[in-house]
Fold:
Amino acid sequence: MNHPGMKALLEGLIDYAGLFPPAELALDEAAGNFRRYISRPERWILGRFILPCALVPTFEELSSEWDLKQSLSLSVLCGGGNDPAGFLDKLQGDLQLLRRTPAIQQGRLQADVIELKLPPLEGEKDLRFLLKSVSERLGNEFRPWYEFPWASARDYAWIAASLSSFNESFAGVRPAGFKLRCGGVKPEQFPAVEEVAAAIHACARAETPMKFTAGLHHPFRHMNEGLGARMHGFVNVFLASILARELGLESAELEQVLFCEDPADFVLEENSLGYRGWRVGIDRVRRLRRDFATSYGSCSFDEPLDDLREIDLLPGNGSAS
Structure:
């Protein structure tokens, strides 16, 4: 597209998660959608296909006849269990499956990113032990993104600091990141603005990479009458993340960005992006998108793009030039 600022913000932004609620499509339908998306002009906005590890062999079979110009990028949900021992056992089995998948060995499928929902932990010591144990199993083959479903805002600072310390101490492995869930199918599954701000602030201060998932179908925060909840906007979330990391905004300042429902308050210019008086140049936006606020999982690829077109932030054909 001919808007460098929006291209820097949107490139590779959306990991397609059509298998998961609320879409909850069958694998063949979700895979078919992904096949169409990678052929469309908007493919530059598309990231990875998200799927559980158990479905990788079936996806391998479904995609075996596709005429591909490059490998298909996957983000694979691995692990499970209610305690660290069970989690590590399940992870080991999942990694064995990935390592023996022919299409991955041949490079047709690229499955070097995994997402891990961690079991409840007592504190920093337990997390450090689990991070080290996971890294011993991953080596340098996989980049892990950790979700902490049991955590609340008061936990985010020590979690982000632990991930940052791990990344500094284990330079031979790929950096671990923090995955934040921003919504669901029920009103109570949408975290408060204060909680999202606390997570972003903690990760920005610790320089811990982030990715997001769920609830970010639309560019700007808004009220969803059917759901009975206010939904976070992906422009709000990613610009808040970029501003936090680049300008060192505090949580209360990030809350202003996240609460805003007026697109006119956002700076979406060719050479800079931001919110009101806070701005970041597009070269830094591009770098921070790559290294800090990386992507988000969405069960819809069309819905976010349709919204962007409605407010003239994406051309009708969706091309990058």
Remarks:
- The CA atoms of residues 132 and 166 lie 8 Å apart.
- The mean pLDDT is 95.
- The longest helix spans residues 84-99.
